[in-house]
Design a protein that fits this description.
alpha+beta, 3-stranded antiparallel sheet, 31% helix
């Protein structure tokens, strides 16, 4: 599993954030033979990053696909969600907890509260 995705899912459920979060595998396809090296690089990079990734070689059985493809890489244990809705939900949770939100600032340090498990103090530069 991917800890960051687990954290996002935990926050989504804990605070009931409506962001269409859904566990799903991610697949990138090569539509022609010239893109084969890109797929090899994707598989190598994903594996080095600790993801459970594998190369898929045809559309005849590896994946339920109606579009023919040359090869692909499939990473399991991924997720999809609306990042804007997720961030709006996070901002709402923080605002209700009394955490000030500043726009157009650069963060230099973030401090967490054990109560919420979310950032509680942001030291920034205007």
């Amino acid at each position: 599993m991917v800890p960051a995705i687990d954290d996002i899912e935990r926050v989504v459920h804990k605070y009931n954030i409506d962001c269409c979060f859904k566990r799903a595998a991610h697949t990138t396809f090569a539509m022609n033979p010239e893109e084969k090296q890109t797929i090899e690089t994707e598989v190598d990079g994903a594996t080095k990053a600790g993801l459970e990734a594998r190369k898929v070689v045809d559309s005849g059985g590896d994946l339920p696909s109606t579009v023919p493809f040359y090869s692909g890489v499939r990473a399991e244990h991924q997720a999809q969600f609306n990042s804007y809705s997720y961030m709006v939900g996070i901002a709402d949770v923080l605002a209700k907890a009394g955490v000030p939100i500043y726009e157009m600032t650069r963060a230099q340090d973030v401090r967490y509260t054990s109560e919420l498990g979310l950032p509680s103090t942001l030291v920034s530069v205007v």
